[in-house]
Write a structure and sequence with these properties.
The structure is a single chain. By secondary structure, this protein is of the alpha/beta class. It is built from 21 helices and six strands. The chain has a six-stranded mixed β-sheet, sandwiched between helices. Strand 3, helix 2 and strand 4 form a beta-alpha-beta unit. It starts with 10 loop residues before the first strand and ends with a helix. The model has no long low-confidence stretch (mean pLDDT 95). The structure holds a DNA duplex.
Length: 460
DNA sequence: ATCGGCTCGCGCAA
DNA sequence: TGCGCGAAGCCGAT
């Protein structure tokens, strides 16, 4: 059967400039920080082969990426180092330069025939692409490689809930959940000369960078890089996937994939993960369906949210019924009110919540089920819902390796009613869905979770 | 252990 | 226009 590795709907020309007059094809890598299952890279190779040129890859490294700190930079650089080495084995040169991504793309792309870029949906990522498209002397083409079904194919508006986007995604899955055949690189780019930062020694590089060092790096469990991601996913499939349906909401277990940090930095492809799941024996069909629902429907609902909701990082993004009901309960007395510092230091009266906060601080990760509880309680323990929302988002982005992800903005907003519905009215929350410690006790071994976090923190 | 009520609004059927 | 039903629930009645 004939199929295209890079479907036409993944490709979007961003300007009217001509292509073909330069010496190489530039792949400006920013979101999809990997050498495998990367549609943007693949398309760049195809274009380069057509022109008889090589592909040069460029990445712009900033000291002041919004809300990034030592923890995030360490993980990202571990991944970039491996990606650079993997590309070199394919005879593709990757240069990493200090500077704003758009500036680096324009500088390294000065002699390019065409600039290919990948696709993040946060405000600043869109602005970078806009700037490159406007100022570049050659054609700029964007290739979607971070979702299974391109956003515009699914919907042209902010979807109301998972149930409205689900059929729109499923309708197209057969066209996009297809195997990926990498093209052969015909012309090497290794001989091209371009400045590149030395990233072989990450510790040395990190010491030189003027970055926020307020958050420590994480233990080796979450080590950055595509090969580490694939290795962890393989372990998940072989040892834990058979328990995934039963245990995915059981935070005392580790029967989850732990892929979110790798997906956030584009170190692993969602298409690769989905294809791996497809290959699993159909006796585990329930687990397969459940995992693909998370990986595709809910993840791409988050992409849809940040792409189409202009205020995705503000309280204003909430639906009217949610803001209304929270406003009606603004004056309700709060039994507990904690400062941001008390929250960050895990100094509340609730040992389950404190355990979740400690998991986040020490590992850069939190079990999915606890993320919801964690967020709901900050709403309950803050002076106002607006203040709670801002605090939650700030702590989320500070400590999580996958902070500042579309899933972060969607997850935090979900706590306040987005993509959800009204429930029984109660103090503070109004009609926003409530979660209680008693629910954790009823549904899972929450004491076991606290013990698990104690062990993790001891080891860290 | 299990069930129904609580509550909003989208999207589809009619 | 009516109706079913939903991103992770709670609570009280049985």
């Amino acid at each position: 059967m004939d199929f295209q590795t890079v479907q036409k709907s993944r490709i979007q020309v961003l300007n009217d400039a001509e292509s073909g007059k330069g010496r190489y094809v530039l792949y400006w890598m920013q979101q999809s920080q990997r050498a495998d299952y990367n549609h943007a890279l693949e398309y760049a190779i195809q274009q380069a082969n057509r022109l008889g040129q090589g592909v040069l890859v460029a990445f712009g490294l900033m000291d002041d990426y919004p809300e990034a700190n030592l923890r995030h930079y360490t993980f990202m650089l571990e991944g970039l180092k491996e990606t650079r080495e993997t590309l070199a084995r394919r005879r593709i040169k990757m240069v990493i330069q200090k500077g704003a991504p758009a500036e680096v793309a324009l500088k390294v792309g000065r002699n390019a025939s065409v600039i290919i870029c990948d696709c993040g949906y946060l405000r600043h990522q869109k602005a970078w692409r806009e700037e490159v498209a406007t100022r570049a002397g050659c054609r700029v083409v964007q290739v979607e490689s971070d979702v299974i079904v391109p956003l515009r194919v699914v919907s042209d508006k902010a979807e109301y809930a998972a149930r409205t986007i689900r059929p729109k995604i499923h309708k197209h899955l057969a066209d996009y959940l297809v195997d990926f055949k990498p093209a052969t690189v015909k012309e090497s780019s290794l001989h091209l000369t371009a400045n590149c930062m030395d990233i072989d020694n990450i510790d040395t590089l990190l010491k030189k960078m003027k970055i926020d060092r307020s958050v420590m790096r994480v233990s080796n469990f979450f080590k950055g890089g595509s090969s580490r991601a694939r290795q962890m996913f393989k372990t998940f499939l072989h040892r834990r996937f058979e328990r995934y349906v039963d245990n995915r909401n059981q935070p005392q277990t580790d029967d989850i994939s732990h892929m979110s940090p790798y997906l956030h930095f584009g170190q692993i492809s969602p298409l690769y993960l989905a294809l791996q799941i497809n290959d699993v024996d159909s006796r585990l069909q329930a687990a397969k369906d459940s995992f693909l629902e998370e990986l595709i429907v809910r993840r791409e609902l988050a992409m849809n949210f940040v792409n189409y909701a202009p205020h995705y990082d503000s309280y204003k993004c909430l639906p009217n019924w949610a803001r209304l009901t929270l406003a009606e309960h603004r004056q309700d007395p709060r039994e507990y009110v904690y400062t941001r510092r008390q929250l960050e230091n895990a100094q509340t009266h609730d040992e389950y919540w404190n355990a979740a906060m400690r998991e986040m601080r020490h590992t850069g990760f939190m079990h999915n089920y606890m993320r919801m509880y964690w967020g709901k309680k900050i709403l309950e323990w803050s002076k106002t819902p607006e203040h709670a929302y801002r605090t939650t988002l700030a702590i989320n982005n500070k400590y999580f390796l996958d902070g500042r992800d579309p899933n972060s903005y969607t997850g935090v907003a979900w706590v306040y009613g987005i993509h959800d519905r009204a429930w029984f009215e109660r103090p503070i929350f109004g009609k926003i869905r409530y979660m209680a410690a008693s629910g954790l006790e009823r549904k899972c071994d929450i004491k076991g979770y606290v013990r698990k976090v104690d062990d993790l923190v001891d080891k860290a």
